[in-house]
Write a structure and sequence with these properties.
Length: about 230
Amino acid sequence: MAGSIELYRRLYDLFLAPVSRYDCGRKCAPLNEGIPVCCDTGHAIPLVDKHEWQLLKSRTDLWRLYRARDADAKKELADKHRDCRAVECKGFRHCERDNRSIACRAFPFFPYFPRNKGVAGLSVFWSFEDRCWVQSNLQIVEPEFVKECIAAFELLFEHDKAERDANYEFSGTIRRAFTRMNRIIPLIGRNGEFLAVEPGTHRIRTASWREYRRHETFRDEKPAAPARR
């Protein structure tokens, strides 16, 4: 099954839960001329495995290959793996929930690996924190989303070592970055619990969502009501 269309079909069937009950695109779109940030290739270019691309083409005409339009996009895509495809969809107004890529379903989260251990939970692509409303309201994340997201990635990792290695390495990147900033890494545990990775020691401890940083873009907003846990 390694690297197969059938694998990605299983992943799509496994990972259906929304991040939250909120339409988070409505929260960030006013910052981006009415377009949700994660649906705009000017901010985030989705990458899919070649087999995921084949599956998407067999299911829908929503997606097409993305062609870099400027130097920044070309630089962003310069080191992508040869088995990856950069893609773009028709836009958020045409979204087909069942035909979103794995990258779209998971955004803004990735599976976090402690050193020499398995997945501990989900952390965030913090470079989007100035535009991503979810990252300033992590209390809204549904435990079912966390469980399905982790289950999907762990199934993928069983068949794709390179994908596992990439997320393991990125976990190290976020540890170094947050240590330099002297900030805790927000981490949502496997059962939806709130955790924090301490800077420097990288110790994982129990946390309150109120400890998580709210970016100044959203700081004056009232925090959204938490999901049930």
